[in-house]
Amino acid sequence: MLKVNELSGGYDGKQIVKNMTFHVEKGKILGILGPNGSGKSTLLKMISGVLKPTRGGILIEDRPINSYDIKQLAKKMAVLPQLNASVFTNSVYDAVSLGRYPHQSGFFSTWSKEDENLVQRAMESTGVSHYRNQHLEFLSGGEQQRVFIAQALAQDSELLLLDEPTNHLDIAHQKQILDMIRMQVELNGLTVVSIFHDINLASLYCDELLLIENGEIRAFGEPHEVIMQDQIADVYKARIVTYPHPELPKPQITMLPTNELERKKATINKKNFIITDEYVKYNSPSPLKVISSAVHNAGMGWYDTFLNRAIAPEYDIYNVKEETEQFLRHNRFSPTNTVVMLTAVKTKCAAIQHFSKGNVEISVMVTAGIGNGVDVTKAYLREDEPHIGTINTWVFINGKLTDEAFIQAMITATEAKTKALADQQIKDPLTNTTATSTATDSLLIAATQQGEEMPYAGPITEVGKLIGRAVFEVTVSAIIKYKEHTIL
Amino acid sequence: MYLKNSKYIYAYIASIALLLCSLWIGVSFGTVNIPISTLWDKATDPIAYSILWKIRMPRVILAAIVGASLAIAGAAFQGLLKNPLADPYTLGISSGASVGAVMTIFLGISIPVLGAFTLPVFSMAGAAFTMVIVLSFARLVDRSMKMETLILTGIIFSSFLGSCISLMVALTGEELRAIIGWLLGSVSMRGWSYVNMVLPFMIIGTSIIWFNRRELNAMIYGEERAQYLGVNVKRSKYMILAGGSILTGSAVAASGTIGFVGLVVPHMIRLLVGADHRHLLTLSFLNGASLLVICDLVSRTIISPVELPIGVITSFIGAPVFAYIFFKQRRKVVA
Q: Which stretches are transmembrane (chain B) (predicted)?
């Protein structure tokens, strides 16, 4: 659809765009990314035909753009420049109708049924029909932008160029406009080339991305080929990290502030544990990075309060979400900053211990209810109802863990727990084999993310060794406490 | 679709009725009131008949032509420059046209090919020349040509050209003193020859601008956007500017500088029916004619038998409207 070949050009003899070559296929969205002043707008101006290139060529459907006259070009390509205020405005309907300008000719140009239909359809698909008689100046920025998109759609061209279509819009309007453009691409085979300021939006909505640096192409390809941590950081001269989108296979980025917010020094200390009849609580002076299988705030995140809550056996497990929130609010815990696990074990049976070796410090807390021992290798034989977590393990680490270190820490801790069950000869009552866990164990690994970097936490690393030993010893002591308590 | 909206139909009916009415009272009222029937009844009162045909009719028709020309030129300038304060007078184009006209009289220029059209042609040249200079200077000062920049530039050039005229007047003897009265703007004592002189230019200028009505609609959203919509911006711009110069130059050649007509009329129309140039241009044309016919009637009857220059009346109405638009636009920017 669009071919840009060895294109160079700029203003006043100054070369801004240098030797760019790329092609866009029909029915695709190409996003143009690049820092301010990298030549994005200049490139778009050359493609749109208002700026003559000094070298190279632009082909639309294999025909050079300078072989089209202005009206023909407008039939092939609609352009949406950045929104700017106008002194005089017409009604929405009149503004959208202007999109039909290139299709009309003659002194008394006639308005055909097709013109009218296209205008109506453009207004409907952008959702501006219901204020068709209002004047543009009384509409918000987002609404105005939608009117101009309707105008561009009424132009009925196959190629649409956009210059930051979501500039100054709130996220609801950003989404609305980009969803709408995406829909036109999928339904009508529209081809779109758009400048984006927001890398994350570009990643979400574009099929291909073009990353520009100092007027040259730095990268061109699918989002995952362009939005790479080191490349983006280098081009934009900003510290960023990439992470996967939670639901879509599209990379996202986030900034890392250089003057890191004054974070309180976090240490791991046994004194931070408080045990009441209701719960075991750990309160960290500053948030910890956590991965857990808790009932509240599970998964990965940053939290500073951790509760292991003792509950009665008749607790309604099916209502756990609402009940937990109620409990937190009632006891003045922040629901967004607290991780909660549940246990049927009395809190006085909790085993807590602090370990350190060299620079590595960890604290471990375990409550172990072993009435429901399960041999995981024989678990396919059972059909249990879900019930309350019975061995809850917390591991607090003073150090900076990578993602792989977190996962290795979970594996190491789980293996140590299994070994502790074997050591205490806990059996699966159903199969009478050695239990490997109970039915609903929970694990939490939390790290200060300050101090020493720990890239790995496997069993032969310093931290791994400590985790293995600590979880084993604390779990054993928790099982012993539990046994003593149940016998009494 | 064109006239689907009934507000336009009412606007056209009202405008045409207003124009006919003002022509009628313009012709029949004055220092002596003469019934309009005299126009086709020579026998009853030959003197009145001759006043009507020789004095009143050309005067009223000339006022209508000048008013229509200035109003449509103003509407076109405003749309093209996206500036609600633009009009031949505020941009200094009228002053440029006056210099052209005064020079023609001052130097006694008469070009045989042009004949009676020498004066308006030089006047138009003065208008076009001034416009090019004012626009390029304003662009030089401020690439985005903000509203105030353009008007200030207009004022600067207006005062400069005004003093050029004063100098020329001072350098000559008595006969050019009469020019001063003419410069203030008047349609009196012109006769049919002036009507014949400006009519062709009004038709040409109006056609050029009207031909670009849809392009003007696109250009109010900016020249870049207009080009993306398929408008040949360069061609339309030159055509509109040329049309505006022709209208202003010929109007000034016939009646001197009459200010604010091109500002007030399009502004009122925009308030009433909106900024769609397909209607704005035509309605400005009709109502510009009515406004100037009425202003002329007021100027010659308000302190009769003394006649005020018509420019006094139009400025009396126009300056407050100018102030109001300026206030409103500034407030819009602040908000």
A: 12-36, 56-77, 89-111, 117-138, 150-171, 191-211, 238-260, 306-327
Domain limits for position A241: 2-255
Contact in structure between A146 and A126 (CB atoms under 8 Å): yes
- Binding-face residues of B in 191-230 toward A, CB within 8 A: 211, 214, 217-218, 220-222, 224-225, 227-230
Residues A434, A343 share a domain:
yes
Is the interface score ipTM higher than 0.90?
no
Q: Which of B58, B93, B57, B96 is nearest to B77 (CA)?
A: B93
Give SS3 for B158: helix
User: Residue A235: how many CA atoms within 13 Å on its side-chain side?
Assistant: 23
H/E element, B232: none
Which are the contacts of A425, defined by CB distance < 8 A and separation ≥ 6?
Answer: A434
Q: Which amino acid is at B269?
A: I
Query: Contact at 8 Å (CB) between A251 and A31?
Result: no
Contact B79 A88 (CB under 8 A): yes
State the first-to-last Cα distance of chain A, in angstroms, to the nearest integer. 81
Structure-block tokens of residue A132: 């068709």
- Specify whether the CB–CB gap between A43 and A75 falls below 8 A: no
Q: Answer yes or no: do B224 and A91 touch at CB < 8 A.
A: no
Spatial CA neighbour of B159 closest among B170, B151, B171: B151
What's the Rg (C-alpha) of chain A? Answer: 31
Q: How far apart are CA B202 and CA B68, in angstroms?
A: 8
Outline where A83-209 has alpha helix (H).
92-97, 113-126, 141-154, 171-188, 199-205
Q: Count other Cβ atoms within 10 Å, centred on residue A278.
A: 13
Contact A202, A33 (CB under 8 A): yes
Is the same domain home to A157 and A297? no
Q: SS3 of B220, please?
A: coil
User: Side-chain half-sphere of A238: how many Cα atoms within 13 Å?
Assistant: 15
Distance CA A373, CA A390 (A): 9
Chain A positions touching chain B (beta carbons under 8 Å) = 48-50, 70-71, 73-75, 78-81, 84, 86-91, 94-95, 97-99, 101-102, 104, 107, 109, 111, 116, 135, 148, 151, 155
Select from A255, A286, A320 the last residue of a domain: A255
d(CA B268, CA B263): 9
> Domains in chain B and their CATH numbers?
6-334 (1.10.3470.10)
Backbone angles phi, psi at A195, to 5 degrees: -80, 135
Same domain as A292, residue A358: yes
Report the alpha-carbon distance of residue A410 to residue A292 in Å, rounded.
9
Domain edge (last residue) among A255, A284, A303:
A255
Name the token pair of A441.
């164990």
Contact residues for B311 (Cβ-Cβ < 8 A; gap 6+): B184, B185, B186, B256, B257, B258, B259
- Tens-digit pLDDT profile for chain A (488 aa)? 899 999 999 888 888 999 999 999 999 999 999 999 899 999 999 999 989 999 999 999 999 998 999 999 999 999 998 887 777 878 899 999 999 999 887 666 678 889 999 999 999 988 889 988 888 888 888 888 889 999 999 999 999 999 998 887 888 888 988 998 999 899 989 999 999 999 999 999 999 999 999 999 999 999 999 999 999 999 999 889 899 998 899 999 998 887 665 666 778 888 899 999 999 999 998 899 999 999 999 999 999 999 999 988 778 878 888 999 999 999 999 999 999 999 888 899 999 999 998 888 999 999 998 877 788 887 777 766 655 558 999 999 998 999 999 999 999 999 999 999 999 998 888 888 888 888 888 999 999 998 778 888 888 888 999 999 999 999 999 999 988 887 65
End-to-end C-alpha distance for chain B, whole angstroms? 35
**Residue A164, token pair as written in the block:** 């930051």
Nearest chain B CA: its distance from A87 CA (Å) = 6
